[in-house]
Amino acid sequence: MRQAWLSELLLLVGLVIAALLLAALFGYFGWFMFAALLGFTFRHLYQLYRLERWLRVGRIRNPPESWGIWGDVFEHYYRLQRRYYKRKKRLTRVIREFRESTAAMPDGTLVLNNEFRIVWFNDAARDTLRLSTSRDLGQPIANLLRSPRFKTYLDAREFDHPVNVPSPIDDSRILAARLIPYGAEQYLLLVRDVTRIQRLQTMRRDFVANASHELRSPLTVLSGYLEALAEEPAMDGQWREPLQDMQAQCERMNTLVNDLLELSRLETEEGDASLEHEVDVVALLERIVRNVRIEDGARHDIGLEILSGAGLRGTDSELHSAFSNLVINAIRYTAADGKIRVRWYARPGGELAFEVSDTGIGIEEKHIPFITQRFYRINGSHSRSKGGTGLGLAIVKHVLQRHNGRLEVESIPGEGSIFRCVFPQQRAVYNASLASDGSILAP
Ligand code: ADP
What we know:
Blueprint: H1 3-26, H2 29-57, H3 68-104, E1 108-112, E2 118-121, H4 123-129, H5 133-136, H6 148-156, E3 163-166, E4 174-182, E5 186-193, H7 195-231, H8 240-268, E6 278-279, H9 281-296, E7 301-306, E8 311-313, H10 316-332, E9 339-346, E10 352-358, H11 380-385, H12 392-402, E11 406-412, E12 416-423, E13 428-429
Parallel strand pairs: 7-9
Antiparallel strand pairs: 1-2, 1-5, 3-4, 4-5, 6-8, 8-13, 9-10, 10-12, 11-12
Helix pairs in contact: 1-2, 1-3, 7-8, 8-12, 9-10, 10-12
Bound molecules: adenosine-5'-diphosphate.
Adenosine-5'-diphosphate binds at residues 329-330, 332-333, 358, 360-363, 371, 376-379, 383, 388-394, 417.
């Protein structure tokens, strides 16, 4: 038994024995016993009174002095109280530090509640969005950032990427806004002025597009002359080879310029590819495969497997460019007699997939994350010798982004690769004559 309870019990026993002794000496057993129990009860009432008075004050104070079970009660409560205050102090400090650090952040930072209303903002947000504490706290953020793009961003609730919106105080400035969910439906909104970066990007894009465009005419003239020279019967035999070389280089520059133009056009297009236009993927793939077979001249075994008759909502020319780039790559990086399969099928979840598999040189895993970067080549001279520009997969990536798709790459060096473009169900178009999952078998 604990010490405190023991002393409490001893007190009661002591009082009862004292009452018994006094009753033995003087009689009045009932009165002495009553007095003993009254004393005992009074002690407890008095200690309760002290406890209540101590608690009533509310703030942390030394506990009343006491012994026995009441001493323990005071001590326990005092310890709990101190622990609670310590934790409260620590939390207050953390919150203060968090607020100080976010306040010092150069980017505008706002805390929003589950209804996207402003709960708090830092100085940078005040300056960037010209906010006022009295007017804007509690306001829905969509009232301040009124761009339809931002509304769509909020409604979609997909906050993996920032969204660019015009500044509410100056139309010529662009802000990148990014929501970061945290806690129980709270959001941190980061707002950054990206006008300068956007201008630089536009300048770079325009420069590449203009330079490529300007290079086109001289290249056409050069190719024309080279072709005429190559066909000239009076041409000295020793010039044949250098001329062929020059023609091949001209051809390469032409492809490069075309790819650069295609890429900058894709980068300039705002938003996603249209959902209104329907592309007949089956016909598109048949056309692509027919053309590459002609160009390949039966050096590879190129097969087409159409396992779905579904079409896609999007842009015909872009999809043509992406799909043919992947098929051409498969040919480029597969030795003669290798097997190339082009497939179009619906996945169980409703997604559609375009897949090119080859039995070519394959790609080491460490390169896979980088191959969609511009001019990233694993073996530059091999790519160049096969007419590669280093831009093909960058084009594929952009086209897929514009069609809400993704690229999956599986590869085993020395055995072959699979490049798969996966499109979401909302991009699928099914003909009435097809099964609801769009699956028909028409290889
Ligand atoms: P390139 O014009 O050089 O082919 P891409 O952007 O199309 O440029 O591809 C980038 C790099 O990825 C290529 O240089 C090559 O190393 C690798 N690659 C692409 N497709 C394949 C493939 N099917 N098999 C093996 N390697 C590939």
